[in-house]
Design a protein that fits this description.
Layout lengths: L10 E5 L2 E2 L3 H13 L5 E6 L1 E2 L13 E5 L13 H9 L4 E5 L6 H7 L4 E5 L6 H13 L4 H17 L2 H15 L3 E4 L2 H11 L3 H4 L2 E3 L17 E5 L8 H11 L7 E5 L5 H10 L5 E5 L4 H7 L2 E4 L8 H8 L3 E5 L3 H7 E2 L2 E2 L2 E3 L4 H13 L1 H15 L5 H18 L1
């Protein structure tokens, strides 16, 4: 598709509850960097802009930040009028809800009919259901009441009869029908939505795959230390306890290797206590760090043990820095990242198979030739993560917008 002039629709707004460190914010600034080549004007709408907690290298002066700081206009508290008012006053052409859905479609189109509403899903479809059910299953042994509720209600109603999934199918279809365009992270996610929700042709045309991207690192270090890392939030869905259990098996055969856990979150105390209980001799919790390239300059292997993932930036960053990723098969996005035309650009483990995870971890650590081959494949794969993969999707959206804006 040819390059499109954006002079008639150059004002793009992004709403994100909190702009801080993390993959969603990285994608936000990567997107602005790409679209800035067209001369776009960006408006970042948020309830909290934590500038001191992240430092995107591509931050520029082409955007305006507006914080909804008081409760009367805070969208996270259900006060959506302020967003619509802002879109109308600034004559926004696109308003993108970044990883959060707000029910403003009707009001937005009444007040500013030329502004098109976009919902950008930064996870895999229906991930909420899997998280809820897994959390309830995990907590069923915490008390007799929860145990009884799991077996008497949750298991038959929500697991066997798919009540939760059916409910979320309706919710997701409503979201799709309540926006002009709907972004997903991969083509596989688009096909899953079309198939599962039985979408019409018109609804299907609303969905655009927009991949997370990563710039290749020309200064990457190929000679690595004997370090295995985890980088991410220490939360239930990341399931660091599975990595710790795998490391318990692996470290016996890896006396010169060390596991470093980078991140913070509500599961940190639990994870540290588990590491102590397992008597791990070569595991350190490093806390939160925003210096990802520095961390990955010395690491040889990056592990991901999540319950479910979308298109995780940490795996893209690992490959770009010559770090071999090992991950559970926790979604189509992960499979997409770790695959390559000539084999694999990482190691994919059947979901929840801790022993296989440990076995593959030992293999990669101890077989230097195998690790070098994987590293070469990762570096080669990282060169496909440019914004060019998204150009046709973005220009398709902007062309459609142009048909309405004139």
């Amino acid at each position: 598709m040819c390059c499109i002039s954006l002079m008639n629709y150059r004002r793009i707004g992004f709403y994100q509850h909190e702009i801080a460190e993390g993959g969603t914010t990285k994608v936000l600034f990567d997107t602005m960097e790409f679209l800035s080549q067209y001369g776009c004007e960006f408006h970042l709408l948020t309830t909290k802009y934590c500038r001191e907690r992240f430092a995107p290298s591509n931050e520029s002066s082409t955007h305006t930040v507006h914080e909804f700081s008081n409760s009367e206009e805070n969208p996270s508290l259900g006060n959506y009028n302020a967003i619509v008012k802002y879109a109308k006053e600034r004559e926004l052409d696109l308003l993108i809800m970044n990883a959060v859905f707000l029910p403003i479609y009707s009001e937005l189109h009444t007040e500013c009919p030329k502004c098109k509403l976009v919902y950008w899903m930064h996870s895999s479809p229906f991930h909420e259901v899997k998280l809820i059910l897994s959390d309830r299953k995990r907590k069923k042994n915490n008390s007799v009441v929860k145990w009884f509720k799991w077996y008497a209600s949750t298991l038959p109603k929500h697991v066997l009869l798919n009540y939760y999934y059916k409910k979320h199918y309706r919710i997701e279809k409503h979201k799709l029908q309540s926006c002009d365009y709907y972004f997903v992270l991969t083509r596989e996610f688009k096909q899953e939505l079309i198939r599962t929700l039985h979408l019409t042709h018109d609804d299907s045309k609303k969905i655009f795959p927009i991949y997370n991207v990563q710039h290749p690192n020309p200064l990457l270090t190929r000679n690595k230390e004997k370090e295995v890392i985890f980088v991410g939030r220490l939360t239930f869905e990341k399931r660091v306890e599975l990595l710790l259990n795998a490391w318990k098996i692996a470290e016996k055969l890896l006396p010169d290797w060390e596991l470093k856990v980078y991140g913070d979150g509500e599961e940190r105390c639990y994870s540290e206590a588990l590491a102590k209980k397992l008597k791990l001799r070569s595991c350190r919790f490093m806390g939160l760090s925003l210096e990802v390239e520095r961390i990955m300059s010395t690491a040889a292997i990056c592990c991901l043990t999540s319950l479910i993932e979308g298109y995780p930036c940490v795996l893209l960053e690992a490959q770009a820095n010559g770090v071999v990723p090992i991950s559970f098969d926790c979604g189509a996005g992960v499979r997409n990242i770790l695959s390559s035309q000539n084999g694999s650009a990482g190691i994919l483990i059947p979901q929840d198979d801790v022993r296989q995870f440990a076995k593959e971890l030992i293999h990669v650590c101890t077989d230097e030739s195998f690790r070098d081959t994987l590293q070469d494949a990762c570096i080669k794969k990282s060169h496909v993560y440019t914004q060019e993969v998204n150009r046709s999707s973005w220009e398709g959206i902007l062309e459609l917008t142009g048909k309405y804006n004139g």
